[in-house]
């Protein structure tokens, strides 16, 4: 159990809601007929949801994410932590919105009419859509209290990232970000 759940029943309810969300039909990519033709709609859960899951379980937020090691991506300048960075950016946005919503104040000034008398701005819609798969088990207040802050991208073409990129292109295969950090600090990789 973690500090986000007061009782074992709350924690088990969270685990059940997570299991239901992972197995829900909306979590599968599917083809949709849109106004401009057919397109693939992305899954319900994103990397940001998995990062939040790690945080609420008391794990390191980067559990399950791996550094970029594909040669063509590195040669074209991809961030070494590309997937982790994108997930953290999305989670950071919804966490900041949750904090602003719980603290209110200027947030009310951002509202605009979306449908009829329903007032939601894009940030509120993003927050609502983010929390939807977890069936009110994860609340706005819980999200706001995570203490999560944004992370920076690790450039593969600048600074210490160059060392790691060279090592990966030479055959190193970091599986975790701790291993990537070791490659970036390794003096012989320069």
Task: Characterize the structure shown.
With 190 residues, this protein is mainly alpha-helical. The model is unreliable at 109-117 (pLDDT under 50). The termini are far apart. The chain has a two-stranded antiparallel ribbon with strand order 1-2. Strands 3-4 form a two-stranded antiparallel ribbon. Helix content is 46%, strand content 8%.
**Shape from CA axes?**
globular
Rg calculated over all Cα atoms: 20 Å
Spatial separation of the terminal alpha carbons: 43 Å
Side by side, the strands of the main sheet go: 1-2
- The helix tally amounts to 8
Strand residue content: 5-15%
What's the number of structural domains? 1
**How much is the average pLDDT?**
84
| Helix content percent band | 40-55%
Number of strands: 4
What is the structure about, briefly put?
With 190 residues, the protein is mainly alpha-helical.
Write the layout of secondary structure elements.
Elements: H1 8-23, E1 30-34, E2 37-41, H2 47-56, H3 71-75, H4 82-103, E3 113-115, E4 118-119, H5 122-131, H6 140-144, H7 160-169, H8 177-185
Antiparallel strand pairs: 1-2, 3-4
Helix pairs in contact: 2-4, 4-5, 7-8
Offer a few descriptive terms:
190 residues, mainly alpha, two-stranded antiparallel sheet, 8 helices, globular
């Amino acid at each position: 159990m973690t500090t986000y759940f007061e009782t074992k029943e709350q924690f088990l309810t969270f685990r059940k809601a997570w299991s239901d969300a992972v197995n829900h039909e909306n979590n599968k990519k599917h083809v949709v007929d849109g106004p401009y033709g057919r397109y693939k709609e992305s899954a319900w859960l994103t990397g940001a949801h998995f990062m939040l899951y790690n945080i609420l379980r008391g794990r390191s937020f980067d559990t399950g994410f791996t550094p970029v090691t594909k040669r063509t991506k590195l040669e074209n300048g991809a961030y070494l932590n590309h997937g982790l960075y994108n997930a953290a950016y999305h989670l950071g946005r919804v966490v900041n919105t949750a904090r602003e919503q719980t603290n209110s104040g200027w947030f009310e000034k951002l509202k605009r009419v979306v449908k009829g008398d329903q007032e939601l701005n894009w940030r509120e819609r993003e927050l609502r859509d983010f929390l939807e798969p977890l069936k009110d088990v994860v609340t706005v207040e819980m999200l706001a209290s995570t203490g999560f802050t944004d992370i920076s991208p690790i450039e593969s073409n600048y600074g210490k990232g160059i060392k790691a990129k060279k090592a990966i292109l030479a055959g190193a295969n970091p599986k975790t970000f701790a291993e990537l950090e070791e490659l970036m600090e390794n003096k012989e990789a320069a």
